[in-house]
Structures
1.
Amino acid sequence: MATCVTRTGWRVLEGMWRYSSTCQRTSRNALACPSAQKLIITHIQKRSLFVLPFGIDVGILGVAAYYITRLKRPHQAAIEEVFGPEPSSKEGSLYPEKVVKCIAHRGAGLDAPENTLQAFKYCVERDCTFVELDVRTSRDGQLVLLHDQGLERLTGTNISDVRIMDWEKIKKIDVGTNHPNRDQFKEVYLCLLEDAIGYLMSKNVKMIIDVKGNDREVINGILDIFAGHPDLYKSAVVTTFNPFVLYKIRKKDPRIIGAISYRPYCFSAQDYDAENGPTNPRHGDSILLHLLLRTADWVHSLLWRWSARWCAVSAVLLHKDIVSPSEVAYWRDLGVRCAGWCVNRPLEKLYWRGVLKAPYLANTLLGEPEEQKKEQDRKWEKTYMEKHMTSGEN
């Protein structure tokens, strides 16, 4: 009798579990033996591990990790201390002189040898109060102002990587030999970030520090520079194309104002513009590698805005050919400044000032409205003096 009751009870349980949403399948034969209960419990445990469809649980974990690890942006007052008021804001209308318009890219690298003290002095002489400079490390860990990995373009030498050289050798190389205005700038040498900061801060010039490379020395060097110059928090912005580098810097020092630089096809091509698209492929000799880099470009185009928000940037520096009024408005709604590079033509500068109402990075200060007005005033003054001298002689 006991056996019959037991079997009847197990059959009832079998029917309940068969139509249960927790466990859809159990063995009919297993329920007729005492080990069936253990088998049912095993089914329940296995089913509980796959509650969500494949991929959704991973996505939820990824989103949670994103928001948990996302950094905080510096105080808005600190951002305005560097960038000034928004051009479209009430304060920007009342105090237009405080609005940042032109940022000298590499110290106006088309007018003077880029990333040198001579270039920064050239900017100061023309009342440019905001410059951008590039930083990378030498073999001995010095923070050198240099955009390229090597010195071929600047010097015509075969030095392809300054990481194999100490600063004592690098500082003796003339980097103005290939510059278009080399007759005006002779014996020009690279400088260290420490020297550039000392000069620029003494002239009340704000700066964007573009970090090149991802080595530990450059990250720690930037942190040490800010720790040694407390006023730099109100005068400088750190930017990079690599969000992980910026994240490491701002994770250790959240007071640093950060920015993300972006342009299309930055993995696969060395150059890009709207007219020609991506040109000068980095690995054009290998079709497979080139296709992989193009895939990386596509993924990057989808994720760079998320990475910028993950690092809590205060500004984005974008290639001018991909910036539209809607792009500026998108970042403005998030409280992030949007700047374009490289805006060199006079009409482009007027467009950025009048339509986009956003700052821009320029390789040349020629064509700046203020500079054009000064040039006209100088010509008028020269003409006026010549007429008076002529009338006095008569």
2.
Amino acid sequence: MMKAPLFFCVLTLVLPSLGGMPGRPPPCCTELATTFHRHILKHVQNVTVQNKDGVCNIKAVLLHFKRRKVCVDAENHSLLTWLCTHKRHRKICSLLTKGTGFPRKAIAKTNSH
């Protein structure tokens, strides 16, 4: 009679941990585009950052387009300049350039042209 409540307690403790185990690894950038044409940036719909931790061992910026994603080196100067000069992406810019002084240099350089 006591076995049913004990089984139920064990089941409620074990099931949530099993739910966190994915059937396949999360999609990660395995290769980075080091160069790209700047004109593609006008078609970017969203930008996310892949940190170098856990399963994904490359720090990258993912550019999301309508039908695909492109992984770009997180230290790409052209990409960082673009991120820092667009209000929509300033949060990601500050995340990637924290402590480097990059945004001020990049914005001053692009405004002088």
3.
Amino acid sequence: MGSEVEEEKVFDAEAASSMMEKLRESFSSGRTRSYEWRVTQLKNILRFCDEREQDIVDALRKDLSKPEFESIIYEIAMLKNSCKVALTELKHWMLPEKAKTSMTTYPSSAEIVSEPLGVVLIISAWNYPFLLSLDPVVGAISAGNAVVLKPSEISPASSSLLAKLIPEYLDSSSIKVVEGAVPETTALLEQKWEKIFYTGNGRVGRIVMAAAAKHLTPVVLELGGKCPAVVDSGIDLQIAVRRIMVGKWGCNNGQACISTDHIITTKDYAPKVVDALKHELEKFYGENPLESTDLSRIVNANHFARLTKFLDDDKVSGKIVHGGERDKGNLKISPTILLDVPRDSLIMNEEIFGPLLPILTVDKVEDSFDIINSGTKPLAAYLFTNNKKLKQQFVATVSAGGLVINDTTVHLAVHTLPFGGVGESGTGSYHGKFSFDAFSHKKAVVYRSFAGDASIRYPPYTPGKLRLMKALLGGSIIGIIRALLGFK
């Protein structure tokens, strides 16, 4: 007689509701609110990173062929830095913030108290499946919430590792991991959350926002967009292209929300930019980049087909000036440069999210700002120039989630800056204290005594009371004196 195989439990709306009930009980008990609980969980995330580093690297290699360097630096080390910042600053973040009061409430004092929201949902992305899963969790834990993490099914090895190990390191009564695809995510989105944090694309972002609207649930949407790099002449071109390249192909082979989507430069300068890119690409990845172990592969066959469609577009196929090699069996596409790509082509109307780098040309570099502003607002925009006036114009006129002058992607590592989008590139932000704030409610508190009670608030209302109240609310000392003396 064969052994009976235990049927795998289905995670549906009923299972999600049951899980939520237990999490709400845990949150209501107050266990997640204590400073000690928060610190313990953060320290355990650090321990997880240290003890399971090789497991994480191996999972990322299975999912994306991600180079060990990128896995350790851009996922593990950045996550550890987030934990260390939170552990250093948490006591300060939790303190009530003193607020000024007005003459209207005199005598009084006021403060802003940060309180946890409750039970929050974090839906993460496949391209940085550890950092983008656990970095928001750091913020949610720091703020004292109970958390459900839904990793991306597109990176199954990483998702499986998180589901297996998170319960070993973190408080499983308050922090849960749910694996799965559309049915499981749908079941989760049917529940009422105190906040939903989603990292991914705009199409799914709209679904998340629509589901959240049913319960009036606030959201943070970390999306993406076509992040441009404007390249001026008169710069150190070698350094500029190397920084563009490391923010493109050195960021998961272009599969990053803040990687350079395209370059904009002048017609006259474009040939020099192309030559510099070609020269540095060979230094980075050799003569046959498809064999390089320093480049991630495309995540799956669907994304490979999507990128192939960009390259095979009639408007684009003749514009390839470097690269374009493909290995369908191993899901690899070499770093590819395209020059003078039409703005109405498919590749210029969708986020590329891969190793293809179009170059648009303009008559003068200032025209690039109009091109950027004519499209949807990107998550990041980059400018390479030594021209002070151009820098000022760029900062003043270009709207994006974040801007970097003379580099790419580095703002991600500055924890004192908010990281997030604007418009279609996202809503809300996180990193450092901004992560704590994203998962906190800022509660206004006013303290008064029974002294100094003023009869002017109470009926019967008189013209004199009205004059004095108007003066008090207007904040005019002279007006208050005039009202007290009976002047109109």
4.
Amino acid sequence: MGCCASSFLAETHPEKDHQNKQSHPQNHPSPSSVLDPATGVPSFSEFSVSDLKAATNNFSSDNIVSEGGEKAPNLVYKGRLQNRRWIAVKKFTKSAWPDPKQFAEEAWGVGKLRHKRLANLIGYCCDGDERLLVAEFMPNDTLAKHLFHWENQTIEWAMRLRVAFYIAEALDCCSSQGRPLYHDLNAYRVLFDEDGDPRLSCFGMMKNSRDGKSYSTNLAYTPPEYLRNGRVTPESVIYSFGTILLDLLSGKHIPPSHALDMIRGKNIILLMESHLEGNFSTEEATVVVDLASKCLQYEPRERPSTKDLVATIAPLRMKPDVPSYVMLGISKHEEAPPTPQRPLSPMGEACSRMDLTAIHQILVMTHYKDDEGTNELSFQEWTQQMRDMLESRKRGDFAFRDKDFKTAIDCYSQFIDVGTMVSPTVFARRSLCYLLNDQPDAALRDAMQAQCVYPEWPTAFYMQSVALAKLDMHNDAADMLNEATALEEKKQRGGKGS
């Protein structure tokens, strides 16, 4: 949309354009100097490594604003071009995209899209081992920050509706423009621009790697069909939008299965963010809850379309005359301040240092005291199978105490596989065993399972933070550590929270 002739040529033959720009850089206008007259957004173009090094202070760690990916770090840097335009630069490893032609084609496909509800992609760099995407920079943080880590005020109801509506519009735009697949849609992908308006990050429109492994978030929030076949479909995107609606309603991470149980039980008020304190319309909340329930249907064909999302949310009141930055409680054109660090508990300190020995000592001392209330055994018969299962847990505990972590994994796996009884402590202990055996992916899965069993258990979040750090996802690890610390403070103030 609004591309110049050279951009159109490159859209058809990106690898040829890449070769041309390498040979004749002086024949092309500098990146981001050609604006689309309809949107005011720069036309999509190729950047040089030197442009992006200069913009990001040689990819300084001080400029990192987020990161992601499963095994290879995909860092996002804040930068500023010579024309003073702020940009976000996402850096991939060459192993994620070994073929430069394939990377360029993917980037050009995403770069064609232009919409006011997107943080638009304005360019890419594919030079030697470098694989970089360049997008508009959004200075006012993510939905996750404003919902889960707020400092001054929580998001008011009208703003939550506006977020839902704008992101539904963004997804509908992507779908109507032939890009219906969005990878790993979550509250970290919703960004706020200089006016405080929510926008959808364009980075999620492009796969994290050529193999398309797309979900790096908690397994409890992953579309069920992705767990079955590892593929993202347009219906998977609708499911993920449903999880964002849950975030907006509740102000916290609630596993969809748990939320659906509350919805079926007509416990809508329990689902709502307590800080809203009745400052919302029950009728509107019911509409959003109903839409979330439809988005989270197990069968993909039963979920609504993007047009249904827009049509359902559009009639709800969103204070159209009030600017977004006013509702967010931020100053226009000003970046939100960083989250202050809370003081860490001994467990938090050990996790921040990735001190697995200290974590082991704490878990041994804690034993199973946090498992109270996570098991419902009243209808279970005391069978031989139950005795065998508890015996395997006991053997696992002895091995864990004696630091025989491979044996502990085997014994705890026998306990878990029977499935009669669930224990967050067993998942946390096996998570640590996996970390000590250099298996951070498995460790992260177990820590997530512990959270599913006990959604507000600090240890589950602590273990996720260590596993994420081991996977070089340091921003996500810091967020998890912060969340664990907040939950621990809450638990100490009011007893066991669940």
